[in-house]
Amino acid sequence: MNKQLEVPKGKDIVSMSLSGHTFVRLLDAKGEEIFRSASPAQDVMAVVQPGTYTAETDGKLGKYEVGSLESLAPNLRSRAAGADATKPPKL
Amino acid sequence: MILSLPANPVPSELYAFVKGGTSPVWLPWYIWGGGVYSTKYNYNTSQFFGYLGTVSVPLAGSCPVIVKNFRMTGHNNTGSMVRGSLFQRTGNLSAPIATIVVTGSGYFDITQSAGNFAATPSVHSLAIELLGNGQGIATITGLFIELQY
Q1: With contacts defined as CB-CB under 8 Å, which chain B residues touch A32?
Q2: Per-residue pLDDT tens for B8-22?
Q3: What is the complex's ipTM, to 2 decimals?
Q4: Could you give the 3-state DSSP secondary structure of residue A80?
């Protein structure tokens, strides 16, 4: 399936929710591939310039969100809330 | 041409700490404590905040080399973020030519366009900088640059 994505000014990340896929890629306005993921992960993130893109996948593309690189770290820290940050994981 | 680069480079100061030498060692990275990384080798996490290492990208010849794309493969666990940026090395680091960010859990294989960046080997030096954040374990198994001579 294909889907149009809009990345506004001030944003540089597109986070896509996928299912049943083997790949997803982003094409710019000229039709050139600027991003490809061959990962089975359900959440795939692409770093892009502001603009309009076409997302192509052989699976289902659900919602997408735009964001910025700078905002990622706090989100990760909140996801790990409750963990003891003074002790690394034992392997 | 696909240039395959050794991944998970251990900084030279850690070579000595881990192995007592400078031969390459590959390690998984244990990203921990909001950007601090540590390993089971008791690396100094307070000194190297979030920095996983830098890989040099060798270029040959004298004509411009077109950098087609940057690819990173590996495995990531929930709670950790791995970020790889392909840079042109200058006195003042400019914006990355290409950046890959991984936050999801599981195997990843991501290719990012480098925008046909024209690198002149005698002038430009390229490098990949690796950063980590969050709390979790990430392993980078491959770094690849596609070049067109």
Answers
A1: 113
A2: 665 555 555 555 555
A3: 0.79
A4: coil
